[in-house]
Structures are given as structure tokens and as C-alpha cells.
Amino acid sequence: MDTNPVRTYGIGELLGMARERAVPVVRGISDAALRAPTPCAEYDVKDLVNHVFQVVVQFQRLAAKETSDFGETPPDQVGGSPRWRERLMDEADRLVSAWSAPGAEEGTTGGMNMPARLVGSMALLDLTVHVWDLARATGQEYPGVDEAVVAELSGAVDELAPTARKMGVFGEPVPAAEDASPFERLLARTGRDPHWG
């Protein structure tokens, strides 16, 4: 009999893990790299940072079952602000707190009334995969990903992929090498080349 059941982590806990992985990458983005291309063909580094800002702010609202506002173009949080790295990590702290609050994962949220935990997993996906994108784009080593985060995201990608591909959020899956890690396989399922660069 298995006396060690698999632990289920809360979305807030998982976001906390992703935030810790994001800190060195965000701090390591130089101003000179802001116009570099990224694995997201439609974004350069500055655009992708602004997108991540929008995600971490708007998903705080979704955790509280409030209306979010994902406008066509995210506001420019980077231009003219030397403290944007610290501000982004402060917002990521607020994201972790919002999804750690009692009731955040219960019920549904957002305009499509999706299960709240799945919505939280979407924030986790962005804070993980887009930080990997930023690391790749700026010549940094991605500091790895926690096994629990990959497990959560694997299930979320299974659920989200058909709609995400129709909407152009995910590309078509790319083949992963036989010896690919679980995270590399996850990246490939979102349409990314794990060895981009």
C-alpha cells in the first residue's frame, strides 16, 4: 500500500516556484537586448516583457473573480522606466498572493467562465514558458523548472492546446528528441523548438 500519496500543490505555490525561477532571468535582461528576437515570432524582448507584465497584472484580477482587460496592445511598462525589472517582480509577488488567497481556485473566472484552477494554470504557463523565451532571447541559461510545475502545465496544455492552436497562441507541436526532458517536451507541445537560438 502506497503511504506516500502524490502531493497536490496549490496554484499559488506553483506560481511562487515559477517566480523564483524568473527573478534571475528578468534581472539579467540588459537594455541592449530589448530589441532582440524571441522564440515568439510576433514579439521582440521588450514586447514580450510588456506581455508578461500584462499577464501578471490581469491574472491577479482573475484570481479575485474580477473582470480582466487584455487589450490589443499591452501598455509599455519598459520604456523610460529604469525600475521595470523590480516592478515586474513586485507584480509577480502580487500574482502569487492573489492565487494563494482562499477561494482563488474555486468556481469559475474570466469572460469564458473557465474553471479557476485552469485559469491559474494559464498564468503559470506564461510565467514559465515566456521566461524561458526571455532567457533564450537574451543568451541566458534558464534556471530549470520544478517537477510539480511541469506536471501541472502538462495537464493544462492537454486541455488548452486545441483552442490555443486555433487562436494562434500555440504553434503546431514540434518533434522532441528521444532524450528530451519533460520540460523540453512541454515546450515542443506549445510549438517551440527547445533548442531555439
> How far from one another are the termini?
47 Å
CATH topology: Four Helix Bundle (Hemerythrin (Met), subunit A)
Main sheet?
2 strands, antiparallel
Tally of DSSP helical segments: 6
Element string (H = helix, E = strand): HHHEEHHH
Q: What is the oligomeric state here?
A: single chain
CATH level-4 homologous superfamily: dinb family like domain
**What Rg do the Cα atoms give?**
16 Å
Percent strand equals under 5%
For the biggest β-sheet, the strand order reads 1-2
Identify the CATH architecture: Up-down Bundle
Residue share in helices?
Answer: 40-55%
* Shape designation: globular
Keywords:
single chain; 197 residues; mainly alpha; Four Helix Bundle (Hemerythrin (Met), subunit A); two-stranded antiparallel sheet; 2 strands
Question: How would you describe the overall organization of this protein?
Answer:
The protein has helices at 11-27, 45-63, 84-100, 116-137, 147-166, 182-189; strands at residues 108-109, 114-115. It has 197 residues and is mostly helical. It has one domain: Four Helix Bundle (Hemerythrin (Met), subunit A) (Up-down Bundle). A two-stranded antiparallel ribbon has the order 1-2. Strand 1 (108-109) and strand 2 (114-115) form a beta hairpin. The chain is globular and about 45 Å long. The termini are far apart. 36% of the residues are buried. The model has no long low-confidence stretch (mean pLDDT 93).
